[in-house]
Design brief:
alpha/beta; Peroxisomal Thiolase, Chain A, domain 1; 24% strand; binds oxa(dethia)-CoA
């Protein structure tokens, strides 16, 4: 018995923001952004919320799998930009789609979040605790990026992707994941400071601090191009596959140059590394499921093909999963 992806779905905010739109208020250019990142535009939430995007992606994944909300046993949502710290996004999704038989909780593994959700749900299914799960990566990063910081805000976009997974003859073959907390501060969102009436100075608004994301881009770049190939090599060994057996490498879409470098380091042709970063930018946990959904719905994935999914992100977290589609 294995765990297979049986349906996928995605949802994007309506508003598209091009690089040219950003040129209007920041010292940057379409040329710089395209050359350094491969990004041309991104979707940005105006009326949408993390919950509304996630719920829409989940409804579509269920429809694709031919399942009803009440069939769902488990919902795991991966996000760093939920609407509320609590209740968690997964519980909000449960209520929104009417999956009243599901248990639900969130995980935070940043851009590797969807992968970690897939791995966690697979472990539950394989040990027999649940028969199926809805896993979702959803972000409205536009509310946590500093729109005055040209080195980071140009990278990110909003969106959600989901997959319905369940018991099958074949599917997930091997999983590999890891973390390096000592490098955590190369990509972080400012802390919530300890502030209460018993602290010196009491409780005041000025102690709330910045809640924006901050990043050392070059450090993250170096981490990605060394760690992702290593994770992929490790998962291939666990799966017993040769690298040439893999039909598609579905990677986190952080920067087109990162993906080109990884392809080169693995010695694999770039055609095996599908990309949609040009249209969406980096949507953190939503990148992998949105790309999977596009590949699935456009008929680019054939049942029986071998896929390696791989993500990396804040934490630092990283991993790779080998699956038979
Ligand atoms: O999911 C994980 C999330 N994060 C990432 O994956 C980030 C990974 N890192 C990257 O993608 C790249 O490091 C960036 C795209 C963030 C930056 O690209 P880079 O090639 O590493 O540029 P840099 O930081 O070395 O900056 C080169 C120059 C600098 O100017 P000077 O000092 O050479 O005069 C920057 O000030 O480019 C400047 N610059 C910009 N210029 C125009 C930085 N951002 C911009 C900008 N527009 N948006």
């Amino acid at each position: 018995m294995a765990t297979r992806i049986l349906g996928t779905g995605s949802a994007m905010p309506e508003r598209i923001v091009t690089n040219k739109d950003i040129e209007g208020f920041l010292d940057t250019s379409d040329e710089w952004i395209r050359e350094r990142t491969g990004i041309g535009s991104r979707h940005i939430a105006i009326t949408e919320t993390t919950t509304s995007l996630a719920a829409e992606a989940c409804r579509k994944a269920l429809e694709d799998a031919g399942k009803k909300p009440e069939d769902v046993d488990l919902i795991i949502a991966a996000t760093v930009s939920p609407d509320y710290t609590f209740p968690c996004l997964a519980c909000q999704i449960q209520a929104e789609i009417g999956a009243e038989n599901a248990t639900a909780y969130d995980i935070n593994a940043a851009c590797a979040g969807f992968l970690f959700a897939l791995n966690s749900a697979t472990a539950y299914i394989e040990c027999g605790m649940y028969k199926n799960a809805l896993i979702v990566g959803a972000e409205v990063l536009s509310k946590i990026v500093d729109w005055n910081d040209r080195t980071s805000c140009i990278l990110f976009g909003d969106g959600a992707g989901a997959a319905f997974i369940g018991e099958a003859e074949e599917g997930v073959v091997a999983m590999e994941q890891g973390a390096n907390g000592s490098k955590g501060m190369v990509l972080f969102r400012h802390e919530t400071p300890v502030q209460n009436p018993f602290c010196e100075g009491g409780q005041s608004a000025e102690h709330q601090g910045s809640s924006f994301l901050e990043m050392n881009g070059q450090e993250v770049f170096r981490f990605a191009v060394s760690q992702v190939p290593e994770s992929i090599q490790k998962v291939l060994v666990k799966a017993g596959w040769e690298i040439s057996d893999v039909d598609h490498f579905v990677l986190h879409q952080a920067n087109a140059r990162i993906i080109h470098t990884i392809a080169k380091r693995l010695g694999e042709p770039e055609e095996k590394f599908p990309m949609n970063i040009e249209r969406y930018g980096n949507m953190s946990s939503a990148c992998i499921p949105v790309l999977l959904d596009e590949l699935n719905k456009s008929g680019q994935l054939k049942r029986g093909e071998k896929l390696v999914l791989s993500g990396f992100g804040a934490g630092l977290t990283y991993g790779a999963t080998a699956i038979i589609w």
